[in-house]
Amino acid sequence: MIGRFRRNKHDAGANGGSGLLAGRTALVTGGGRNIGRSIALEMAREGAVVLIADIDADRTRQVVSELDAIRQGAQSFVFDLSREEECEKLCTEIANRKSPVDILVNNIGSSGRDLADDEQFDRARWQKMFDTNVFGSLSLSAAFAKRLQKEKSPASILFLSSIHQWLVRRIPSYSASKAAVGMLVKEMAVEYAAAGIRVNGIAPGYVESTPKGEPVPHRHTPLHGTSIPPEYIGRAAVYLASDRYSRYTTGSMLAIDAGLSLYNHLGDSKGRRR
What we know:
This protein is of the alpha/beta class. Helix content is 38%, strand content 14%. The protein has a single domain (5-262), classed as Rossmann fold, CATH 3.40.50.720.
C-alpha cells in the first residue's frame, strides 16, 4: 500500500465555501487518527479543502469519508513519510495538482512509547525517530516552500511538536527530536518570511479522549485534571493557519497543555521525587 495515491470521487479543484480557511487547500500528514484527524476535520469545517497523508489505508478512507460529509474535495495519500523516497513521491503528487496546497500541517510523528529502557541510546532507534519526527517533515516543508516561493504565494506551515521539546520525558530520542522541530520552526520562519510563508508550531500536552469524545482523567494536569480532547489542537491549528487571526504570527510555538508543562510531576512541592 505504501506510495499509492488515493483520490476521492469529488474534484478538489474548486475551493469555494465559507469560513476562516475558505479558498484554501491544506495537507495534513499523519491525518488518519487522533490529532491529525481532528486538525483535518476542523480545517474542513472552516472551509478548507483537506488532503491527508497517512501510512494506514483504512484510516485514510475513514477520515476522507468524514471530511467529505463536511466539505467535498477531500483526497488521501498513503505514504510512509519516514522514508525519503516516499516523501519525494508525495511531493511530486502534490506538485502535480491543479489546485495548489497553501497550508501544510506536519503532524506525522512517533511517540516512542514502544522504546525499551535498554534501547534509550541505541543509534538505530534514534535514526528511526529522527527520520519520522524530523527529516520527513523537513523534506516535505522544504519542497512545499520552494514551490510557493516561485509562485510568490502566501502560505502557512505548521509543525506538531510536544511540551517535551522543553521537558524531560525519559525517552531521549523523542524529546531530542521534538527539540529539533522547535528550532526548525524558528529557522524556517526567518528563511521564508520574505516569501510571505508563515511557519509556526503547536506543542500539546497529554492529548486523549474516550470513544465518546470525552477527556480522560490525568492527575498531573493542573487545569481541569484531564487530558486534552484532540479537537482543541485542531482549533488551534485553524487559528495559526488563518490569515485573519495570524497574519503577523510566525516562528511561534503555542503550548496547549492545560498547565502540564508548568508542573514538575516528578517531584512534590518540596522537590522530592515521587
